[in-house]
């Protein structure tokens, strides 16, 4: 293993397990060099990799600042999880913040996605998600009111899926997701901590019940430096 990778992984582990907390400063490059018994060039490579992966922020003339976590590598991509489950399984503090909850008539796009012929009413949910205090996600979701007759702000704040599965006894099967990048909307700029970014990573998803019916359509936007997608491709021969 390369020396700088060894240092990178050690500091990364200490950030992820909370030994180095968000907002704290790392010690100087000189002290890190002495601590690990490696050259300053090796330490600089390690810090550059930590910054590239979203764990620290290098500040000219000052010590590096801990950001608290790296990119949210497929935490929300590989499975359908609630914020409660993520809080329990990850070392993050995740909070939902409701921006609006309203009933709207189906437009042409919703009718096509949900495969309906006659107009229906839908719940439209707009919320942001903070992770360790930073607003890094922005959600816009639509639910067919005939499947979800009652949706309240309290439910949205706590866990929509917990309500759907445990109170409405809906059997959620899978979600089809498309990933793309675009310029941030004015709403996203307002409700997300985008820093200097003017673009967002977006996951557009359609969630299905076990009987094949569409339960939910929506988009989730992410700040680019906190988003990473990992895919494994298998070669069949």
Automatic annotation (TrEMBL):
Q: Name one GO biological process term.
A: negative regulation of DNA-templated transcription
Q: Which InterPro entries match?
A: Bact_HTH_transcr_reg (IPR050679), Chorismate_lyase_/UTRA_dom_sf (IPR028978), Tscrpt_reg_HTH_GntR (IPR000524), UTRA (IPR011663), WH-like_DNA-bd_sf (IPR036388), WH_DNA-bd_sf (IPR036390)
- What are the protein's UniProt keywords? DNA-binding, Transcription, Transcription regulation
Q: Which SUPFAM superfamilies match?
A: Chorismate lyase-like, Winged helix' DNA-binding domain
Boundaries of every HTH gntR-type domain copy: 1-69
Pfam families named in the record: GntR (PF00392), UTRA (PF07702)
Q: Which domain of life is it from?
A: Bacteria
Write out the GO MF terms. Answer: DNA binding; DNA-binding transcription factor activity
Protein's UniProt name: GntR family transcriptional regulator
Q: What organism is the protein native to?
A: Fusobacterium necrophorum DJ-2
Taxonomy of origin reads: Bacteria, Fusobacteriati, Fusobacteriota, Fusobacteriia, Fusobacteriales
């Amino acid at each position: 293993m390369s020396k700088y990778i060894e240092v990178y992984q050690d500091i990364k582990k200490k950030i992820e397990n909370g030994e180095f907390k968000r907002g704290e400063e790392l010690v100087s490059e000189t002290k890190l060099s002495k601590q690990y018994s490696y050259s300053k060039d090796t330490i600089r490579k390690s810090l550059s990799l930590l910054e590239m992966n979203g764990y620290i922020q290098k500040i000219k003339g000052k010590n590096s600042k801990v950001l608290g976590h790296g990119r949210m590598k497929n935490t929300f991509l590989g499975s359908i999880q609630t914020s409660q489950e993520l809080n329990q399984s990850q070392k993050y503090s995740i909070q939902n913040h409701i921006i609006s909850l309203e009933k709207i008539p189906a437009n042409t796009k919703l009718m096509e996605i949900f495969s309906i012929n006659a107009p229906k009413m839908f719940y439209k949910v707009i919320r942001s998600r903070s992770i360790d205090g930073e607003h890094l996600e922005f959600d816009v979701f639509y639910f067919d009111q005939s499947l979800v007759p009652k949706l309240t702000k309290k439910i949205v704040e706590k866990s929509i899926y917990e309500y759907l599965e445990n109170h409405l006894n809906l059997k959620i099967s899978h979600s089809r997701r498309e990933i793309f990048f675009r310029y941030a909307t004015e709403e996203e700029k307002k409700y997300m901590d985008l820093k200097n970014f003017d673009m967002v990573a977006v996951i557009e998803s359609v969630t299905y019940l076990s009987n094949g019916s569409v339960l939910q359509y929506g988009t989730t936007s992410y700040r680019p430096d906190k988003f990473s997608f990992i895919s494994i491709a298998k070669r069949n021969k």
